[in-house]
């Protein structure tokens, strides 16, 4: 290739260009003879190594050896060059002033026409700073900058490794989850700088209590975790926790003043309390929370009794974020008119899929939403979505109504009627297409006030239904005073129709009574043809349940209604 270039440019020009490239290159370059004596060194070589060309001419590159590589390293290097004509790799060398540096080196053999090596060319780049930067980045990614103990990432890696060892050798391992008590107060009172100093002192004090094989990590603001591998029993972990609590009780000196600190510690054990790191950490955290609730400055061992309480708290935290994270969605269950056999309405049912725990049953999250007051923003969101869906549904089924369940917590708000009126007006949907479903227990406790609100809702145009009728404690004398349109028979009566004649009598009576009061009746939970035929004979107005269809997402509604209409028309 060189001969072709030389003939193309001319030998003098080619040599001139080659010399310029060597002299101006940022990489260090040396050329040796076949015996390894240096014949040429460029300015970049002088800059990196500190040697001038005059100082190295005739000498071998081993003057740069750092002593960090053994004889085998160099033997393997030259074996590769002999076999392949080139070697590339990272190597530590030494500058003239004795300073070590790391370089990325390429050595290439130059052959004569007979295939014998006549020269060697070495090209290298000083990657010391890059190496240091990478090492620093690696440390930054694995260690807490403030306390210089492992961070969550390195903690997770070590825990995984130590768990594998514990499984292999049938050993016990403990996780200690430590949270400083009242740290926020101290941080606010003394300032963040002193808070940081305190965290450093805490970490140093804790490290002194641990064995070399133990790991102390900081995973949050004032949260530390400890891995104790190779334990004989839980008492060893308890002993370390007691020492930590006692150690932290001694005052810390900040700005010449004594500052007192305590900690709450939770302990979980492998394999009794979990088989994986995430479970063990979560359960140690639960035990720590129990320690705080029990008065702080103490430790608690994880027990299964802590699970339920913690799950409720966790579920509440997830639920508070569900709306903003778009985790909630609506499914619609069709309601069939038994005379026309057409789909007359859809009941909007809230559903929740939480990314970490999957689908959460409405029986779990609806009561929790009511208890925490979250049911109000959730129901308002549902109403907004139902308005949007209503417009889409009316493109192909303009008669369809949507039923929405109303919580007692929401209904009792003073501006409840105004809230719903504002939503339908904003979305330009007429209230007559909405059925508000309220249970007896929602409206009976304050019947007089309930009547007033129900009248206002009727005046707005909303349809009103009593949901789960028959399970509450309503007075029939009040029933005729409520401006309602529909009674929904609770599914518990429908489910037992074929088993108990009394339930069949109750259902028949409810239907007859409702019709005398000029109310429509919807039977919930219809699952069999037998139940459907019984209700048909009793002249029930509408039915819903799995016999008709399961609840479905909005994008399946149109297809279902169209298929249902085709089926009915064919009959």
TrEMBL record:
* Domain PAC: from-to ranges: 87-139
Q: Where is the EAL domain?
A: 312-565
| GO annotation, biological process | regulation of DNA-templated transcription
- UniProt domain PAS: residue ranges: 21-59
Query: Residue ranges of the GGDEF domain?
Result: 171-304
Gene3D superfamilies according to UniProt = 3.30.70.270, EAL domain (3.20.20.450), PAS domain (3.30.450.20)
Q: Check the record and name the Pfam families matching this protein.
A: EAL, GGDEF, PAS
Supply the SUPFAM superfamilies for this chain. Answer: EAL domain-like, Nucleotide cyclase, PYP-like sensor domain (PAS domain)
Q: What is this protein called?
A: Diguanylate cyclase (GGDEF)-like protein/PAS domain S-box-containing protein
Give the originating organism.
Answer: Anoxybacillus mongoliensis
């Amino acid at each position: 290739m060189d001969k072709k270039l030389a003939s193309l440019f001319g030998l003098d020009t080619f040599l001139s260009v080659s010399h310029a490239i060597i002299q101006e290159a940022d990489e260090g370059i040396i050329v040796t003879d076949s015996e390894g004596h240096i014949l040429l060194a460029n300015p970049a070589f002088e800059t990196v190594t500190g040697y001038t060309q005059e100082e190295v001419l005739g000498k071998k590159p081993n003057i740069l050896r750092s002593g960090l590589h053994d004889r085998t390293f160099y033997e393997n290097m030259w074996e590769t060059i002999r076999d392949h004509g080139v070697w590339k790799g990272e190597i530590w060398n030494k500058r003239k002033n004795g300073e070590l540096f790391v370089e990325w080196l390429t050595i290439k053999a130059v052959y004569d026409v007979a295939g014998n090596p006549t020269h060697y060319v070495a090209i290298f780049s000083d990657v010391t700073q890059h190496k240091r930067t990478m090492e620093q980045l690696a440390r930054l990614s694995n260690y807490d900058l403030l306390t210089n103990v492992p961070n969550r990432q390195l903690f997770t890696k070590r825990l995984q490794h130590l768990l594998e060892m514990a499984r292999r050798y049938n050993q016990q391992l403990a996780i200690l989850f430590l949270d400083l008590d009242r740290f926020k107060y101290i941080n606010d009172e003394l300032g963040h700088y002193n808070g940081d100093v305190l965290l450093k002192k805490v970490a140093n004090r804790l490290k002194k209590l641990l064995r070399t094989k133990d790991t102390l990590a900081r995973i949050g603001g004032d949260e530390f975790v400890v891995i104790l591998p190779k334990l004989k029993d839980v008492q060893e972990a308890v002993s370390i926790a007691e020492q930590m609590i006692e150690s932290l009780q001694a005052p810390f000196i900040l700005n010449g003043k004594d500052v007192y600190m305590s900690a709450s510690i939770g302990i979980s054990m492998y394999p009794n309390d979990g088989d994986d790191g995430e479970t063990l950490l979560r359960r140690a955290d639960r035990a720590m929370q129990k320690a705080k609730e029990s008065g702080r400055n103490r430790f608690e061992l994880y027990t299964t009794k802590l699970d339920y309480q913690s799950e409720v708290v966790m579920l509440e935290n997830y639920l508070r974020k569900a709306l903003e994270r778009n985790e909630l969605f609506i499914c619609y269950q069709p309601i069939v008119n038994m005379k026309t056999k057409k789909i007359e309405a859809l009941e909007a049912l809230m559903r929740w899929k939480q990314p970490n725990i999957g689908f959460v049953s409405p029986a779990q999250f609806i009561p929790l939403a009511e208890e925490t007051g979250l049911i109000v923003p959730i129901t308002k969101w549902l109403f907004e979505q139902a308005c949007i869906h209503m417009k889409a549904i009316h493109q192909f089924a303009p008669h369809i109504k949507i039923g929405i369940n109303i919580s007692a917590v929401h209904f009792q708000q003073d501006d409840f009627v105004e809230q719903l009126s504002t939503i339908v007006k904003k979305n330009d949907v007429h209230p007559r297409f909405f059925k508000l479903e309220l249970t007896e227990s929602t409206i009976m406790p304050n019947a007089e006030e309930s009547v007033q609100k129900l009248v206002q809702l009727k005046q707005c145009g909303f349809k009103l239904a009593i949901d789960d009728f028959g399970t509450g404690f309503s007075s029939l004398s009040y029933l005729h005073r409520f401006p309602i349109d529909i009674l929904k028979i609770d599914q518990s009566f429908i489910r037992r129709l074929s088993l108990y004649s009394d339930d069949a009598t109750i259902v028949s009576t409810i239907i007859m009574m409702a019709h005398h009061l000029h109310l429509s009746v919807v039977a919930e939970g219809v699952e069999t043809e037998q139940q459907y035929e019984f209700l048909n004979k009793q002249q029930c107005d509408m039915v819903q349940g799995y016999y008709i269809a399961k609840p479905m997402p909005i994008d399946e509604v149109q297809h279902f209604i169209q298929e249902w209409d085709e089926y009915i028309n064919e009959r």
